[in-house]
Every structure is written in C-alpha cells, then in structure tokens.
Specification:
elongated; alpha+beta; five-stranded mixed beta sheet; two-stranded antiparallel ribbon; 7 helices
C-alpha cells in the first residue's frame, strides 16, 4: 500500500536526482513514470507482497489441475541478482578497471556478509531451536490426544524444518497441525505448512479474515485478536484462548 500511494512520487524524486547529477537528460514524462512504477512493482514489490501474504510464486490454475502451472510473480532478489546490480551502469562515464574493481569489492563485501549471516543463523539460532521443538513435539499429546498441537516455549523459534525432521524420525509425518507460541501481544496459533517452503497448510485455521469481537463471536472463544485471510496464522490475548482456537480447529471438519 505504501508503494501504491507513494511509489510514483519516489520515482519522480529519484529521477530529479538523476537530472541534477547529469544521469538523466530530462525529467520523466507521465508514461515513463507509469512504466517504471509497473516494472519496479513486478520485479521487486510484488514478490515481497506475495511472500508476506502467503502466495506461492507458482501455483496450478485451476487448483485441481497440477499440470497447469501458472507464475504468480517473479522472484528476482537472490544473491546473484543483488551482486549483478552492483556492476557499473552501462551508461556510466567511468568504465575503467578501477570502477569495475570497486564494484567487485562491494560484491565481495555483500556476499561475505550474507554468508556469515547464514552461518550465524544456523549455528546460533536454528540449531539451539531443535531442543525447543523436540520438547514441544514430545509434549503435544498433553494438549490434545491427537498430538496435533505443539506449544513452543520460545516465541520466534525457527521450528518448521526441525518439526518436519522430528516427525519423520518419529514415524509421525504430518501429525502436527498447529503450533502455538507467545509474543508481546499475546499468543499466536500458526498452521503447519505441507512442507518447509510451502504456503499451503496441512489444515488452515477457520474464521479467516475475522478480527477482535467478530472473531470471538464466530469462534465462541473470548479474547480473539485476528485470523489472517489465508488462515495460516491467528492470535488470541491469552494462552488459554489460543489453545481453545487450536483445539476447535483440529476438531472441526473441513
């Protein structure tokens, strides 16, 4: 929404900077602004929006025809693409070896930073989470006889990969439907995806798109905060309320 309302203004201001510094010959026309607005959306904003809203980059259309795969948006922000943007512009006056080497130095810094960010995440965050997820899996039947509800003792814990590995090792693949965890606003109920990178849930939460009193009334559970329109996550003010949402969701038929 921010890009929708302010994107063209930003592009115009950036173009003005280009004119002032001799990088553009003249201010952009309205058709040129519209063209850039659309291109930046399709090559950057749309994929961020898609991921944030749980939309896969490829999906079958119609849904029951998996052979008919349609691209929903392009994914362009990988490491190779980011390195590529560091090259000197084709129309820069300075195409010297010094300029190219400076760009290469920036690329090395970027790639090194991303690599060590990944090492840091997996070593100091992801691996310690295994113990938390294992405990949640082992205690799941304390919350519901099906074992379909796992409660994480630490909010923000990276649980997806660990949970699916633990399920497979235990011969219980697909058992967990919902994961509960706390945050500063209360408790969250998150649907477990069909696989680690999927936006499809094993079982989506009901009450999609409802908030606050509307959610509490529809669910019959006090303290409702929200359920995302895709049903992948919801919230309640209390642990007891979040657990009641998860239990009711488990026991409801599709």
């Amino acid at each position: 929404l921010v890009y929708r309302h302010y994107g063209k203004q930003l592009i115009q201001k950036y173009a003005a900077y280009g004119v002032e510094n001799g990088l553009l010959k003249a201010q952009l026309s309205e058709p040129e602004v519209n063209m850039l607005f659309d291109r930046i959306y399709r090559n950057f904003v749309e994929q961020v929006d898609g991921v944030d809203n749980g939309v896969a980059d490829w999906s079958p259309v119609p849904a029951d025809k998996p052979e008919n795969i349609t691209r929903n948006y392009r994914t362009t922000t990988n490491l190779s693409a980011r390195v590529g943007t560091l090259n000197p512009r084709w129309n820069d006056a300075d195409q010297s070896a010094t300029s190219v080497n400076a760009a290469f130095g920036k690329a090395v810094t970027l790639a090194t930073s991303e690599f060590f960010d990944v090492v840091d995440f997996y070593t100091l965050s992801w691996l310690p989470a295994r113990t938390v997820v294992q405990k949640a899996f082992d205690e799941a039947k304390n919350h519901h006889s099906s074992g379909a509800i796992a409660v994480m003792s630490a909010g923000g814990c990276p649980w997806r990969e660990h949970l699916m590995d633990i399920e497979e090792e235990a011969g219980a693949k697909g058992r967990t439907l919902y994961v509960l965890f706390g945050d500063e606003k209360g408790w969250r109920v998150q649907a477990v995806p069909k696989d680690v990178n999927s936006f499809e849930n094993r079982k989506s939460l009901p009450w999609k798109g409802l908030r606050d009193e509307d959610l509490s009334k529809a669910s019959g559970i006090d303290g409702g905060v929200f359920v995302h329109v895709s049903g992948f996550i919801g919230g309640n003010k209390t642990f007891e309320g979040a657990m009641a949402m998860a239990v009711k969701a488990v026991e409801m038929t599709e």
